[in-house]
Write a structure and sequence with these properties.
The chain has four domains: 9-114, Chitobiase, domain 2 (2-Layer Sandwich); 124-389, TIM Barrel; 471-500 and 522-611 and 727-731, no CATH class; 613-713, no CATH class. By secondary structure, the protein is α/β, with parallel strands linked by helices. It has 28 helices and 17 strands. The strands form four sheets. Strands 9-8-17-16-15-14-13-10 form an eight-stranded parallel sheet. Strands 1-2-4-3-7 form a five-stranded mixed sheet, with helices on one face.
Length: 731
């Protein structure tokens, strides 16, 4: 940067603990870097921050004697600049499964300039707050905020304490605690209440006073951390959804909203846009929100998520104006943000001018669209891109984004080529319009880590600069644990198999009640299995390398190997299930029982190895839920709610419903106490015609949370040898 103002902040990470005289943003960025690197840096770091007039972040770093100088246009870009430098040295990586930073042997640094073509780097999906963050504490949020900063993310969705503020608004309007309690759902189901798809405490509500107060305390802490780094959180706004009991206090007509094809019990209540209450409640909400968190700029409101879209263009124009006015009346500088998932998912309803009508009365610079699912448009629906179909979104600013994960599913999936270079298609399109941001909106985190580092690096490439995937994968793996040729060969080979396909819901048949004894959709075909077997044929080399690794490197390597082996074993169970079907076709019950025993043994081994994984564990999730609560009643509710969302999903479980088994996670505990016994009893019913009430079993599993049986113990402490034995049936 030629016009940078040098406010140098210097500190040494070589011999001393963190000491800095910096103030404000610079200090916050340095703290993020220091937490990751600890005392492993062989150079000093100097930051200089100034926002570029182009409004898109720029980074310039170079080595001045023994000092790494990073000139950046924001605290987040400074963090990403350091992360980019560290990765260029293969010095480390910061991930959900662990972090690594090693002193680079060669500190020579070629002057490097990075420039992102995007003003905003957006993160999170509304439902991430159900499938991932529902029970996070300060420590877990701290880790995620550091992860965001190092990965260049500056626009996270921020929905903490939304219910606290809602209650303040509605209580001011005369509603009682009891009336509000009837509207509430458990913590992990809140996203769908917020989007108008469900309500009512059959989904483990109400939440309780202690919960609301602790969430507000957490929200203030998290918001301050984000602001300290100069982030631009997208906060909640009013979408029209209200407690049904509001009709007890006001003369108002409410529309009952629903959720796609779900039963009628899945519903909420929405104020019509021509009611004065719409603007009044919406404005009150923003005013209350800003009384706690200060002035915001970006506010999210989704009134039509996965529900019937009105075909009346005049009515839709009223909705758009009502949402905009309710925000504008409280904060004239604020921008209404909307998720664009529905525009692709329900395109047949949004066409013919409905979307144009929604934003008809909204100023160009006061509406911002998150085009969340370009990977679905390109690789799954194959229905053309939204920016093409909707004619540049009527020249409203928008964010190019992807949804690499649904529900927290842990199976590998995704067309890596799209994540690396799909953005170029938008940049070169005549209909790109006001493409302003780059985003990623996974429903579930803590999985498929490679995809997210790839996306974040893609966001800092030029508008037409392609990423060579094979080279990028090798560099990524070297940052995780150094040079390991078998791992590099394996992951690059996945570009021809599992990372060349995108699945809406990758799940094994035995994970889904309606398909327990059938075949699933995970792309673990014969080619993938051959690739896994070839990798583990190098087990002696992997063991030798592993023994020479640092503790952090070894942890990351073992986590990767466990995930790979888990997918292989999960596929093996499906293969055995096919063999059981053939045995029954031949009326050979003896062979069927023998095969079922083999499937049970395989699943117990699968569960046992996942106990060694840093994150793929049900008890980890349930402990987060329990620790969030302040009293016995809330602890029990949270535990049940946490278990419900990753298993049966729904509330009063009586029959099959479309979101049954939606999450499909390969997690220890979930396998041995839920998937395995349900699959086994289903087979026994088919083989021996025994009674098995699946619904009763599933309800019992949810309601006995958090009690789990003990996992099978792994006798071989050498995890690589143990995994190899499982792959090649040497147990």
């Amino acid at each position: 940067m030629n016009n940078i103002k040098h406010l140098f902040i210097l500190f040494s990470l070589t011999l001393f603990p963190f000491v800095s005289f910096a103030q404000g943003f610079e200090e916050s960025a340095l703290k993020v870097i220091n937490r990751w690197t600890k005392d492993s840096m062989p150079v000093k770091v100097m930051l200089s921050l100034e926002k570029d007039s182009m409004d898109c972040d720029q980074i310039f770093y170079y080595l001045n004697n023994d000092t790494l100088v990073i000139e950046a246009s924001s605290p987040v870009s400074a963090c990403y600049g350091f992360y980019h430098w560290a990765k260029s040295k293969n010095a480390g990586i910061f991930t959900w499964n662990g972090s690594r930073f090693e002193k680079p042997k060669d500190i020579f640094t070629k002057p490097t300039t990075l420039h992102t073509p995007y003003r905003d780097h957006q993160y999170f999906n509304v439902v991430t707050y159900g499938y991932s963050t529902a029970y996070w504490d300060k420590e877990r949020w701290d880790k995620e905020i550091d992860w965001m900063a190092l990965h260049g993310i500056d626009m996270p969705l921020f929905l903490l304490a939304q219910e606290y503020v809602e209650r303040e608004v509605f209580k001011d309007m005369g509603l009682s605690d009891e009336e509000l309690n009837e509207w509430e759902v458990g913590p992990s189901h809140l996203p769908w209440k917020r989007m108008g798809n469900l309500s009512g405490n059959s989904f483990d509500g109400p939440l309780g006073k202690d919960w609301h107060e602790s969430q507000m305390e957490l929200a203030l802490y998290v918001m301050n951390r984000m602001k300290d780094l100069g982030m631009k959180p997208i906060c909640p706004a009013f979408g029209g959804f209200v407690p049904k009991a509001i009709a007890n206090h006001y003369h108002v007509t409410l529309d009952t909203t629903g959720w796609d094809w779900m039963p009628k019990e899945y519903c909420n209540y929405r104020v019509r846009p021509d009611s004065p209450l719409f603007a009044e409640i919406g404005t009150r909400f923003i005013q209350k929100w800003e009384s706690h968190f200060g002035k915001g700029k970006y506010y999210l409101s989704d009134s039509f998520n996965e529900m019937e879209i009105p075909s009346d263009t005049n009515l839709m124009a009223k909705y758009g104006e009502a949402v905009y006015r309710s925000i504008h009346n409280a904060n004239p500088e604020a921008v209404w943000v909307m998720q664009g998932w529905t525009l692709g998912y329900q395109r047949w309803q949004w066409g013919n001018g409905i979307f144009s009508s929604l934003t008809k009365h909204v100023p160009q610079d006061r509406f911002y669209l998150l085009d969340m699912a370009t990977d679905y448009n390109c690789c799954f629906w194959k229905n053309s891109f939204n920016w093409e179909y909707y004619n540049s979104f009527n020249d409203h600013p928008w964010v190019w984004s992807v949804i690499p994960n649904m529900g927290g599913k842990t199976a590998f999936t995704g067309v890596l080529e799209h994540y690396a270079n799909g953005r170029i298609i938008a940049q070169e399109s005549e209909n790109r319009g006001k493409l302003t941001g780059f985003g990623m909106a996974p429903e579930g985190l803590d999985n498929n880590e490679m995809i997210y580092d790839l996306l974040c690096d893609a966001a800092y490439k030029g508008t037409t600069e392609e990423i060579n995937l094979e080279e990028w994968i090798k560099e990524y793996l070297r940052c995780r644990y150094g040079v390991i040729p078998p791992m590099e060969e394996f992951y690059t080979s996945l570009l021809q198999s599992i990372y060349s396909s995108f699945l809406d819901h990758p799940q094994f048949g035995w994970q889904v009640r309606n398909n327990i004894i059938g075949q699933g959709s995970v792309a673990t075909d014969s080619l993938f299995c051959q690739q896994v077997e070839h990798l583990f044929s190098h087990y002696k080399e992997l063991e030798e390398i592993s023994n020479a690794l640092s503790k952090s490197e070894k942890k990351l390597l073992e986590a990767d190997l466990i995930e790979i082996a888990a997918l292989y074993l999960a596929h093996k169970v499906e293969t055995i299930n096919s063999q059981i079907t053939k045995a029954l076709d031949n009326n050979d019950k003896t062979e069927a029982h023998k095969l079922l025993s083999l499937a049970e043994k395989t699943m117990l081994e699968l569960d046992a190895i996942l106990e060694k994984h840093p994150t793929y564990k049900l008890n980890r999730w349930e402990k987060q839920a329990i620790n969030q609560a302040n009293n016995k009643k809330d602890r029990k509710r949270n535990a049940i709610n946490a278990r419900r969302i990753v298993s049966v999903w729904y509330g009063d479980h009586k029959a099959d419903e479309p979101v049954n088994d939606y999450s499909c996670r390969l997690w220890s505990g979930l396998i041995r106490d839920y998937y395995l016994p349900r699959m086994k009893e289903t087979w026994l019913k088919k083989i021996d015609n025994k009674d098995f009430d699946q619904i009763a079993f599933e309800n019992e599993f949810v309601n006995k949370a958090p009690r789990l049986s003990k996992a099978k113990k792994i006798k071989n402490k050498n995890i690589i040898s143990h995994l190899t034995n499982l792959i090649f049936d040497k147990q």
